[in-house]
Amino acid sequence: MKVTITDQEEITVVAVSGDIDSKTAPEFERNSRLAMDKSKNIAIDLTDVGFMSSAGLRVLLMVYRNIRSQEGKVVLVGVSEEIQDVMSTTGFINFFTIVEKPEDGVAFLKQD
Known about the structure:
Elements: E1 2-8, E2 11-17, H1 25-38, E3 41-48, H2 54-69, E4 73-77, H3 81-90, E5 97-99, H4 102-110
Parallel strand pairs: 2-3, 3-4, 4-5
Antiparallel strand pairs: 1-2
Helix pairs in contact: 1-2
C-alpha cells in the first residue's frame, strides 16, 4: 500500500493505492492522522484501493469522528462498488459523502 498526501489550498487529499488490511491499516491511520493535523477538510482518494478490511473501515470511522469534532468535512473519492457494498452493509456509508473524482471531492469540500 502507498499513501500520498497533498494540499490543495485548505484541503488535504490523502490518496491511497493498494489494499487496506490489518497489515497496512496502521500506516493508513498514521498518514490519516498527519492529514488531520494539517487540515479539517480532507478528501480520501480510494480510487486505487481494491480491498478494504474492517481495519480500514475502522480508520475511516476514526477520521470521520475526528474531523466532525473539528467541525470539518471529509469526503471519499472513487470508492469501488465492492467497498461501497461493505460500507452499506455495516452502515458506514451513511457517514460519508462519496464522489467519483478527486476534483469533485475538492469542490465539495470548498462549499460552505
